[in-house]
Amino acid sequence: MSQTVGPAACQGDSFGYEAPGSLEELAAILRSEAGGERTPLFLAGGTDLWVDLRSGKKQANLVIDLKQLPELSGVREREDETGLGALLPIHSLESLPALGREGQALREAASALGSYQVRNRATLGGNLGNGAPTADMAAALIALDAVLELWRPDGSGRRVAVTDFWRGAGKTCLGPQEVICRVWLPRRVGWSSAFLKQGPRRAMDIAIVNAAVSLKTVKGVIADARVALGGAGATPLRPVGAEAALVGQKPSMAIFRRAGELAAEVSDPRGSGRASREYRLSLIPVLTERALTLAAERLTSQDDKKVARVK
User: Fold this and answer.
1) Gap between the Cα atoms of 24 and 30, Å rounded
2) Hey, which residues does 168 pair with through a beta bridge?
3) What's the pLDDT at 202?
4) In Å, how far are 65, 105, 252, 260 from 245, measured between CA atoms?
5) SS3 content of the chain, % helix, strand, coil (to 5)
6) CB-based burial of residue 46 (10 Å sphere; 0-12 exposed, 13-18 middle, 19+ buried)?
């Protein structure tokens, strides 16, 4: 392991690697380490963790590989929600039937993440667990009202609304022994969604800004809306004022443009080597408007079964 990761990433002779086959085994490992000198780092796809270890951004004295845990895998269907295992490869989300029409934003976010090779390795839970404010899965899941199921070794798991998951850049509400077990998506009849991303290149790059939206219309009027942005602040952002401006309105370019302006007003992006603060602020209203337009064009009225076109 130390040869794979690099000597600088491993802290002395105490370095350990564990690959539990069940949550019971994982709990036993964590209980044995409680109060000790080793702090676990959890490995899912490894597309970010190995890079961070090799570069020295993170140091490890215990890596726990989660890939063999069946409880974190697969898709679970309930009457009112769909549960996506945290270990699902990003690529599998691109064409997952269980997402339905209303989950198109998550499909598009999955398709926009990295290269084909990365999407086959990276996992849903891993993308969220990094805490990155530009994580492609983050904005899509906020727009879809997702809830995260978190596991603890003492059995006191909890459910957290995805909007409450991030606490700052690279920071989440996860405790040191908590693991994302599953992502639950509510069944939302009559909704459509969309995701757009702007990066330095057309593919295989971290977003400068991304936007995900979802809309529900009743008799041609927007009855409910969600807007979510990545790269608009230290955490993924849900501009509720922009959402409120949409409700009760007929889909139109003018109302979508206004929602984009309101989203930009509450955004506080930082500048970086990829883009300046000013450029990010200029992108936010544009991507928001375009994503809303795309979602509206996908809407099929529950009354007349005709596609709603933006005029």
Assistant:
1) 10
2) 171
3) 54
4) 45, 21, 12, 10
5) 35, 25, 40
6) middle
How distant, in Å, are the alpha carbons of 164, 182, 229, 237, 259 from that of 265?
21, 33, 13, 12, 10
DSSP run (H or E) holding 211: strand 209-218
Distance (Å, whole) CA 255 – CA 247: 10
Distance CA(184)–CA(285), nearest Å, equals 29
Residue ranges per structural domain of the chain = 2-65, 70-186, 192-298
Coil, strand, or helix at residue 253? helix
The span from the CA of 68 to the CA of 125, in Å, is 14
Tokens of 170: 């690279």
Query: Directed axis angle between helix 136-143 and helix 104-112, to 10°?
Result: 180
pLDDT in tens, 164-204: 999 988 899 998 889 999 999 999 989 999 999 987 655 55
- Residue 10, Cα to own-chain centre: how many angstroms? 29
* Architecture category of domain 70-186 in CATH: 2-Layer Sandwich (3.30)
Give the separation between CA 230 and CA 238, rounded to whole angstroms.
9
User: In angstroms, rounded to a whole number, what is the distance separating the alpha carbons of residues 269 and 37?
Assistant: 37
181: tokens are 């077990």
| pLDDT < 50: residue spans in the chain | 1-10, 12, 301-308
Closest-CA residue to 78 (of 173, 182, 150, 161)? 182
- Whether the pTM exceeds 0.70: the reply is yes
The Cα 297–Cα 218 span in angstroms is: 14
Assigned CATH class of 192-298: alpha beta
Query: What type of residue is 189?
Result: V
Candidates 3.30.43, 2.60.120, 3.40.50, 3.40.630; CATH matching 2-65: 3.30.43
Tokens for 90? 């990003």
As a whole number of angstroms, the distance between CA 186 and CA 178 comes to 23
What backbone phi and psi angles, to 5 degrees, belong to 242? Answer: -65, -40
